[in-house]
Amino acid sequence: MLTRIDHVGIACVDLDASIAFYRRTYGFEVAHEEVNEEQGVREAMLRVNGTDDGGATYLQLLEPTRDDSPVAKFLARHGEGVHHIAFGTADVAGAAEEVGGRGVRVLDPAPRHGSMDSRIVFLHPKDCGGVLTELVQAADQGGGRGEG
Amino acid sequence: MLTRIDHVGIACVDLDASIAFYRRTYGFEVAHEEVNEEQGVREAMLRVNGTDDGGATYLQLLEPTRDDSPVAKFLARHGEGVHHIAFGTADVAGAAEEVGGRGVRVLDPAPRHGSMDSRIVFLHPKDCGGVLTELVQAADQGGGRGEG
């Protein structure tokens, strides 16, 4: 059902500074950058490796664009650090239904738009051992706004 | 230098319950389980996917074995959740030296024993945007106690 760690989401106060840190320190490069107004974040995807399901694993750096966004609230409470982990799947709607049937609250009633035209749902961290967990279907796995 | 996300370390209060959650909810299976007395943890590695450097990405579930271990202190402060992320490398000593030369404090003066006979160092989270970061060389990349 879930075939890779798609990304680790990291909350930061200054996206450009975080990008510079990861490039300078480890040599990771930005594969994609976008603003997600719905989630109130400016974000960058740094590709770390390819995965054996034909996808890839990224670091996702997240800077809030407004004070009432979930990432801004996370930063106010916890400071910078890991915000969530995301598992990749070829069928996010099906995976959400399966996981929901196993007693985990799915926070999105239907998949919504994520990074790089993916489709995503979030799971309730209290049902996932304190880990804010995302399920993601990449655009080349049938994701994208067109389907949503 | 760093060629994969090797694992995401997750602190939990009850390893068996966490293993059961990840198996029941997502179908992830335990690839390896061990006690690391030095770090004061009982841990399980759940393999999620293979990576294009010939390695794999795991979830690492960590239960403290004593109250003064770093993971016990993390749980007391933050509760359950993501504890650290680990990047895989073919040369952990070389990577630690490079990263140290770029102004990041390396917490271990020499690589020490990690999961599955890997060799690891930790980096200071304050130098890594709030992310406790580990560098890991797998046993089949020349890791293992024999070299250490």
TrEMBL record, chains A, B:
Keyword Isomerase assigned: yes
Question: Domain VOC: where?
Answer: 4-138
Which processes are annotated in GO (biological process)? L-methylmalonyl-CoA metabolic process
Indicate the secretion signal residues.
none
UniProt keywords, alphabetically: Isomerase, Metal-binding
Q: What is its EC number?
A: 5.1.99.1
For whether the record's keyword set contains Isomerase, the answer is yes
Tell me the GO molecular function terms. Answer: metal ion binding; methylmalonyl-CoA epimerase activity
The record's listing under PROSITE patterns reads: VOC (PS51819)
Indicate the family of this protein.
Belongs to the methylmalonyl-CoA epimerase family.
What name does the UniProt record give this protein? Methylmalonyl-CoA/ethylmalonyl-CoA epimerase
